[in-house]
Design brief:
Shape: globular
Helix content: 10-25%
Distance between the termini: 36 Å
CATH topology of the largest domain: Nuclear Transport Factor 2, Chain: A
Structural class: mainly beta
Number of domains: 2
Strand content: over 45%
């Protein structure tokens, strides 16, 4: 392709998210070499691609469905890109944000629970699964909003299970999570997106985990 086409980066957990939409053929063609490497020892299907460009970097968020040795997973990648020539794209780095099992898991790490929320909001999981992902007492949400470096529209609220769909309004373009829950059974994942930063605290209970608290900073 002689012309690079980039869409405005949208959110991981936003109704307008491009993630979850089938990728176009020309987008798949750009990632042909990378996909071939991923498919050497597994069956791989790219489910969605979201391109992003800024003055400092060019990247893509890629969601793949991966079947390997009888195990099916949904894997999220953040790819750092470069263009050696106007017609050639290279993947400089591949950072795995996390993965979730396609269906039932015997165990799920913190990143898997983050992805499960997104899949329930916009993907292949039913929205009826969302309430069970919240603490039974609700999720404590503390928000600090800044406008021109001055605090504005800050406050606290509690999201109850009956309003679990409001989780789908948080804008998170990328996230990072610890590899496992700590000795207290907790894990904090940090997500960012378009002037927003969210610290999301998960609490493990048995083989499941629930979202317990969210601390957000929003800069307008």
């Amino acid at each position: 392709m002689g012309t690079k086409l980039w869409v405005v980066a949208v959110s991981l957990l936003a109704a307008s998210s491009a993630l979850g939409e089938p990728p176009a053929a020309e987008d798949l063609a750009l990632l042909r070499d990378w996909q071939a490497i991923r498919a050497r020892d597994a069956t791989v299907e790219i489910q969605s691609i979201e391109w992003s460009s800024s003055s400092a970097s060019e990247s893509a968020l890629v969601v793949e469905k991966r079947n390997q040795a009888g195990r099916c997973t949904i894997v999220w990648h953040e790819l750092a890109l470069s263009w050696p020539t106007p017609d050639e794209m290279k993947v400089r780095a591949d950072r795995i944000l996390g993965q979730d099992c396609c269906d039932v898991c015997s165990e799920r790490d913190p990143s898997g629970w983050m992805i499960r929320v997104h899949r329930s909001c916009f993907g292949d999981r039913p929205k009826s699964e969302l309430p069970a992902l919240l603490d039974e007492r609700g999720v404590a949400v503390d928000t600090t909003a800044f406008s021109r470096d001055e605090p504005d529209d800050s406050g606290s609220r509690r999201v109850r299970r009956k309003n679990a769909a409001s989780l789908c309004n948080f804008e998170l373009r990328t996230f990072s999570c610890p590899a496992r829950f700590d000795a207290r059974g907790q894990a904090t994942c940090v997500g960012t997106g378009r002037g927003e930063t969210h610290r999301m605290v998960w609490r493990k209970s048995g083989r499941r985990a629930v979202l317990k608290a969210i601390s957000s900073v929003i800069e307008n």
